[in-house]
Amino acid sequence: MAEILWRECAEWLIKQQVILPDHRVTWPSAQVLDLVYTLRDGVVLCQLLNKLVAGCIDLKEISLRPQMSQFLCLKNIRTFLQTCQNVFDISPSDLFEPSMLFDCTDFGKVLHTLSVLSKSEKAQASGIKGFPSFAKNHDYYNDDIYRNLEELANERDYAANAEQPYTLADEEREEAYDVYEDIIQYKPSKNVSASHVHPVEKRDYCIKELIETEKNYIEALNMIIKHFMRPLKNTLVADVRKVIFMNIEELAEIHTGFHSELYKACTSSQYKISECFLHWKDKFIIYGEYCSKLPAAQERVEDLSNKSEVINQAILRCQQEANGGKFKLRDLLSVPMQRILKYHLLLKELIRNTPKTHEDYFGLQKALDAMLDLAQYINEVKRDNETLQIIRDIQASITDLRMPEDLELKDYGRLLKDGELKIRSHDDNRLKNRYVFIFDKVMLMCKSTRGEQYSFKEALVLLDYKVEDVASSVRVGSRDKWSYFWLLAHRQNKTALTMYAKTEEMKQKWIDAIEKALDNVCPAALRTTDHIFQMHSFEKPANCTECDKLLRGIFYQGYLCSVCGVAVHKDCIEDVRSCGAPRLPPRPPSVTVVPEILRRNLTSAGRKPYMFKVRARFAYQGPPDHLSFDSDDEIYVTNKLNNMCWEGYVARTGKTGFFPPDHVEKRPPSYENPFPSPNPNAVENATLAPDYINTMLEGHDWFAGVMERDVATKKLEELPSGTFLLRISPKQNGSYAISINYQNQVKHMRVCTSDNGQHFYLSETKYFKSIVELVNWYKENSLSESFNGLHVTLMIPYKKALAGLNNESILGYAEALYDFQGNSPNMLTLHKGDRIIILSKAGNQKGWWKGQIGENVGYFPYLYVKEIFD
C-alpha cells in the first residue's frame, strides 16, 4: 500500500497538469525518489496551488529556477505551506516542516499534506478526486519507505536526475506562441502579385516571409500603441504605463527603419540583407531590458485587473477594440520577445536555401552569428535580473548584515552555492552550525534563526584563502552525517577553517563552488597575459575586444584591464593581444598599388596555375565544398567568383575549394605570379624582368641623411666591422659619402657623379644609374676594386647594427604604403615610403608588427606596409 500511495500522488499531480503525462515518475522503473526530486525545490508545489486557485501565489514571491539553492528551495516550500494554511484552510498539524521535504527526512508527512490538500474543498472544485483511493486502515505515511530517503537523496546527484515539470509558465508560453503565430506569422497569399517581392524559388519565399512578418510585427506594435497605450492614458498613471508598456514606442520606431532597409535590400542591389541585421544589431540591444521586465509588466496587468474593476473593464474594452477580444493584453506584450528571438531561426532557413556562391552567403552567416549573440545576451540579461532579485532577498534575510558604504551584496558577485555546513575555526576549535553563502568574492557565514532569517557571523574574502582537500576516513557503520571535510586555509597561514559536509558528493560540490569563485576573480588564464584584468560591471552594453561579441548580462559581464582599458570575456583572456600593443586603427581607403615584378614564384612545373597568392588572416573551417585552413596558411587564388566568394587551393594541403575573401589578405608583391598562365611550363620558361630597384633613399636602413664626418665616425666606431652608412656631407655642398667601419677604423669615401649628373661612381671603373644600385653592387663586391687595401664589402647597414645592440633580431624590411600617426610612446609613426626594420611579428593575428625607423622602435599596423624582399 505504501508503494501505491506515492504513485497515486504522482497520478493526481499529472491530472492537475503540473507535471507531464510521460514524466519519469510514470516509468515502470520509477522509484519514490523520482517524486521526491520533482517536488524538492518547491516549484511544482507552488504551481499546483496556483492551478487550483488562480493567483493565490504571487509568482514574484517564488523562484522558478532555484537550481537546488537551499535558500531558494526552502523559500518556495514555505510559500507553499503558508498558502495551504491561509487559502486552503489546512490545519498546521497536517502540514510538513520545510526540512522534511528538502532534507528528505520525512517524505511520508509530505504525502500526508498533499493528500489533505487533494481532498480540500477548493481542490475538489476542480472535479479531480483526491488520493489515496483506498481506506486508511493504518498510517501508511510512516512506513520505512518514506523514512529512509535522506541518505539516498544526498548520494544521488539531483541535477542529473531532475526533470523540468510542466508548469503554468509552460501554458503561458504556449499561449504567447499562439498569439505570435496568429498575428505575425507569414501566411502565403494566393494573390502573388499583391506583393512587391515575387517568390520564384525557396530562397525567395524565405525573404518574403522575413519581409512580410516584419511588416506584420510593426503593425502589431502600432496596434498596442493605438488601442492600448493611448486609450489607457487617462486610466493608468504614468509610472504604471511605463511598467506595462516599457519601450514599445521606441521598438516601433526602430523596426520601421529596419523594415525599410530590408525592403531596399530586396529591391536594390545596393543593399544586402545581411548588412541590415549587422547595422541594426546595436539598436536591438534594448530588447534585453524589455524581455527582462516583461514578467513584471504582465503581472502588473493581472494585478490591476484583479484589484480594480474600472481598470479591468478599460483593458477589456481595449482588447475588444483591438482584435475583437481575441487576445489579452498580457499576451500581446510577449510578442516583441517572440519576434527578437525569431530572427536567428529565419536567418538559418534563409542560409539553408542560399547557394554558397551567392555574394551575400558569408554576410548572412555573420548576420546569423550576430543574432545568436544578441539572443544569448538577452537571455543573460533576463537571468541576471532574476539573480539580482535573489541577491536582494538574501541581503534582506540577513538581519544584522552591515555592508560598507555604497556597497550592496551584489557587488561581491553572483551566488554560486548556499546551504548548511558545520565549521570548526582553528582559532577556538569549536564546532559550529553555519548557513553559508558563497559569492564570487566573499563567503558569508551566518546562523539560521527562524524561517528565512539569518544572523550574520563572519565574512571571508575568498581570494585570501586556498582550498586544501582532505581524504575523509569514515568508519563503517558510523551514524555521523558530518564526516566529510576539507580545509579553507589563509594564504599567509593566519588562520584556517575545517568545513564539514554530509556526504562526499556534497563536499565536492562545495569545493567546486569555492574554486569556481577563485577562478572567476582571478582566472588561471591571467598567467598567460600581461594585462591587469579585473572582474567588472559595465554600465552600458559593451563588446569583447577579442571576439567582438557582446559581454552578456547586466553585472560582472566580463573583465577590464586597468592599464589599457581592454574589455574581454573570461574565455577570451588567453587570446587577447598584448597590453603593450595598441588597438588596430581602421584601415585607410584602399588604393591601387602597381605590383612589383620581383623573383620567380614557381619552383616546379607541377604547380597548379593561379592568379595570385594570399595569406590566411585567421583560421577557417568551411562546409564540405569549402577550404579549411589555419592562420598564416598560403592560399593560391584560382578564381574570384564575386566579392564574397573566391576559389583556390591551400599550399600546405593541396586541397581545392571556396573560401571567403575577408579571411585572407594579399601576399606582398614579391610572392605574386608575374606571368599567370594556364600552362605551368610557360611560367617556368618565361624570361623575367630584372628585379625592381627602389631608388628612394629615405626608406633604406643604411641612409643617415645629413651627417658630419666626425658624427659618422663616432657613430660607426662603436659598431661591428663592416657596418656602413650613406650620408649627405654638408661640407661637400650636399654630395653623398659612404662611411664604413673597417677593422675598427672608420673610412670615408666620396660618391662622385658624372658630368651630366645621370650616373654615380666610387671609381671610374664602374658607373651606376642610382645610389641604390651602387650600394647594392658593393654589398656583393669588394671595395678593393675602387680602393686598394679595403678588402671589405658593405656588410651591415648601421640601423640594423643599432637594432642588434638593442637585442632585437631583424626579421625583414617593409615599406610604408600609408601615413600612420602613432599616438602613444609604444607606437611607431609611419610616413608613406618609410623603410621599416621588422623586429617582431608576434602580434600578427591581432594586426600589429613591431619595427624600427632610425632609432625609434614601436608597434605599427602591418596592413599599412608592404614587406620588401631584396
TrEMBL record:
Top-level taxonomic group: Eukaryota
Q: Which GO terms describe its molecular function?
A: guanyl-nucleotide exchange factor activity; zinc ion binding
Domain annotation SH2: ranges: 702-798
What InterPro entries does this protein's entry cite? CH_CAMSAP_2, CH_dom, CH_dom_sf, DBL_dom_sf, DH_dom, GDS_CDC24_CS, PH-like_dom_sf, PH_domain
Which Pfam families is this protein grouped with? C1_1 (PF00130), CAMSAP_CH (PF11971), RhoGEF (PF00621), SH2 (PF00017), SH3_1 (PF00018), SH3_2 (PF07653), SOS1_NGEF_PH (PF22697)
- Give the record's keywords alphabetically: Guanine-nucleotide releasing factor, Metal-binding, Phosphoprotein, Repeat, SH2 domain, SH3 domain, Zinc, Zinc-finger
Signal peptide limits: none
Q: Can you name a GO cellular component term?
A: cytoplasm
Q: Does the keyword Cell membrane apply?
A: no
Q: Which GO terms describe its biological process?
A: cell development; cell migration; intracellular signal transduction
Instruction: Please give the SMART domains that the UniProt record associates with this protein.
Output: C1, CH, PH, RhoGEF, SH2, SH3
Domain DH as annotated: residue spans: 202-381
Q: In this protein, which residues make up the domain named Phorbol-ester/DAG-type?
A: 530-579
Name used for this protein in its record: Guanine nucleotide exchange factor VAV3
**Species this protein is from:** Trichonephila clavata (Joro spider)
Q: Taxonomic classification, please?
A: Eukaryota, Metazoa, Ecdysozoa, Arthropoda, Chelicerata
